[in-house]
Amino acid sequence: MTHSLFPYLAAATLLAAGSLHASAESKVPCNTLPPLVLEHAKTEAPNATIRGCVKDRVHGKVQYEVETDDAGRGKDMTFDSAGTIIEVEQEIDLGALPAAVSGALEKAANGGEIGKVESVTRGDAIQSYETVVTRQGKKHEVAFRPDGASVKPD
User: What is the pLDDT of residue 23?
Assistant: First the structure.
């Protein structure tokens, strides 16, 4: 019986190892980022303070995240090696949410506490709104498309 489990254990180990390499994120000094990445980050958030930088490998491609703060609001920008923006996560007010998202969020919170809300933009369009809801001491990530439909958080 023990020998019959070996193929399954081996496969599970390989899958787990593979998923670890799908994304290899690490904090790096911001001055080690490609110059175009920093230049474009400063253009996108000219009044912001850079809080930190991350180098990541996603599906074999290097990406850089620049984490900023502008008057207490977070804005994290992800770039490719050439400095092209891939994604922007930006903190927004609850009052700025589309009505459909606001309603879906209130329903998902079900009386719980709603954390900071971020819009997630790819290309020129907001793809989703994300937050963490705390209810009965448990935290749950939730995300919604602009039409209020639930999606998997990034």
Answer: 60
